[in-house]
């Protein structure tokens, strides 16, 4: 099993609060419920989403050759799963260099390749099919062939309607578009142009409508520039973190035009960097954290203008404000944030709430218990989170001196201390495979470890009674490592392995409608 790095981080979104977070005493209603799931008694109800019961997961089709004696996360498997036109589309890349775009309706006979890309010559590295991105009625992806190298492709879902968009690097050379993002009915992507002996490499922002003529450069971002992964979409504006020699690493925005692509504000003027991270959309604004070279972390908010970019909170360097992290936004106005306290080895959960007038209120929701607090290097951290309905689910790991955690727990909060509860432990204990939390209406699917089982498919409705293993896909102590959950209609596709097959495509169909009973 693997070890998890996680920290409890729940944040409520907030605007315009100055000063440090208050260190008020914990009130009785702020004490989280850390009882084990079995202490609440009643048997778990039948798992269901919406008005539909969850059925039994089954293997869709055996696509890949039998795996060797290697961890499942290192073997070929379905990837980049996405819903498109009522079907599942995904990438299949093989060890011999072949790749393909596939689709599935959930049955073995309907699971077929749409477009196959042969293995390149032995002297050339293969370009895997990747970054499947739905934009209106088109599905974009990156793939490579011997004639064009790694380029941008588009599909209408059929073999005949799958084609190269534009050979941006003419001939077999690779363009390798990356960070494909839907902005309305337009695709945005970045391209890195390698340097030469006379000129450094540079990054370019492009847009595409799926045609060769409609695939154009938006802006040359300059020499020695690079995209940092953090980004968030607010309305028709994409906010992203970008680095260049003039401004350092700062927050940028684009509306898909050259005039609308600009630095939001240089928070650390000149080449110094504010290093924005954890971008979260709250209403029409973006909240984010920064961290400077002197160890200072700050919470900021922006409406996209320089004057409308203001500091909300400062976290001076020190053991009481270590590793601030923004979690999900609940109800469009509540942002959760966590801090790890290195003095008492506990995770502090805060909520920032923004009202209709933009006024921010903040409150410490809970201090999560740490049964390992007396042991060396036993500090909590967040591994993952998701919002389902009015609740925030999050994974919390307890660190060790090595890469693997000593414990990983699933928690939930409704924004109150009494409603902050431990749901299940442990989740994945590996540092190479982290448990994913997937929202299914007001419930979540996740991978957890139960008595006598490995890492398997679980479901939770946010209560301890309603948190249970859904299916032991790899029967017995072995693990199925479920991941890649993607909903198509009332079914959920995911990737898992069992005792016979390697990492393959599975589907969790509905059982029946409760309304018809």
List the helices and strands and how they pair.
Blueprint: E1 48-49, E2 52-54, E3 58-61, E4 79-84, E5 87-93, E6 99-104, E7 112-117, E8 130-135, E9 138-145, E10 149-155, E11 162-166, E12 178-183, E13 186-193, E14 202-208, E15 216-223, E16 226-234, E17 237-244, E18 248-254, E19 262-265, E20 277-282, E21 285-291, E22 297-302, E23 309-315, E24 322-330, E25 334-341, E26 346-354, E27 360-368, E28 380-388, E29 391-398, E30 407-413, E31 421-424, E32 437-440, E33 443-449, E34 455-460, E35 468-471, E36 483-488, E37 491-496, E38 504-508, E39 510-513
Antiparallel strand pairs: 1-2, 2-39, 3-38, 4-5, 5-6, 6-7, 8-9, 9-10, 10-11, 12-13, 13-14, 14-15, 16-17, 17-18, 18-19, 20-21, 21-22, 22-23, 24-25, 25-26, 26-27, 28-29, 29-30, 30-31, 32-33, 33-34, 34-35, 36-37, 37-38
Protein name: Lipoprotein
Region (Disordered): 27-47, 105-129
How would you describe what is shown here?
The chain is mostly beta strands and 517 residues long. It has one domain (28-35, 46-516): 8 Propeller (Methanol Dehydrogenase, Chain A). It contains no helices and 39 strands. Strands 3-38-37-36 form a four-stranded antiparallel β-sheet, with no helix packed on it. A four-stranded antiparallel β-sheet has the order 4-5-6-7, with no helix packed on it. Strand 26 and strand 27 (360-368) form a beta hairpin. The two termini are 41 Å apart. Residues 1-29, 36-47 and 513-517 have low confidence and may be disordered.
Question: How is this structure best summarized?
Answer:
The protein is an all-beta fold and 517 residues long. The protein has no helices and 39 strands.
